[in-house]
Amino acid sequence: MQRLMLVGLLVLWAAPGIGEKITTKNTALGDYLQSVIKSQGIWVKNGFFTGNDYRELNDADRGIYLMGIIDGFLFAPTFGAPQNGPIRRIERCVTSMRNNQVTALVDGFLLTRPVQWHEDMHVLTYQALLASCPK
Q1: What is the pLDDT of residue 105?
Q2: Domain extents for the chain?
Q3: pLDDT, tens digit, for every residue of 56-81?
Q4: Maximum CA extent, the chain
């Protein structure tokens, strides 16, 4: 559990836009993220967990992990992420949700995409929330 809290804090610390370029191995980042990467020269840093790592966690730990990821998303404007972009959409979507509901959304997304389980979990979470949250 402490490891998951540390991961959440590190997500906040490593958010894009703090002046350094960071690399990624991901190819399925979604259309929006791809356009941001191309237009602004931003690179998404490799994460600490993959989808496979996440799937090995128990229900409670998956929920805690996702709270840390979402906290990082919501803190991203501090590092220059646009406040009215996808982060705002995610914020509107998850603010009234309980932890187990967010976990169910992400788990459902992963269940239908086993080919992506080796990819970084922070990117998969972003994709899951954008796919689940209304525009």
Answers
A1: 96
A2: 2-132
A3: 999 999 999 999 999 988 888 888 77
A4: 38
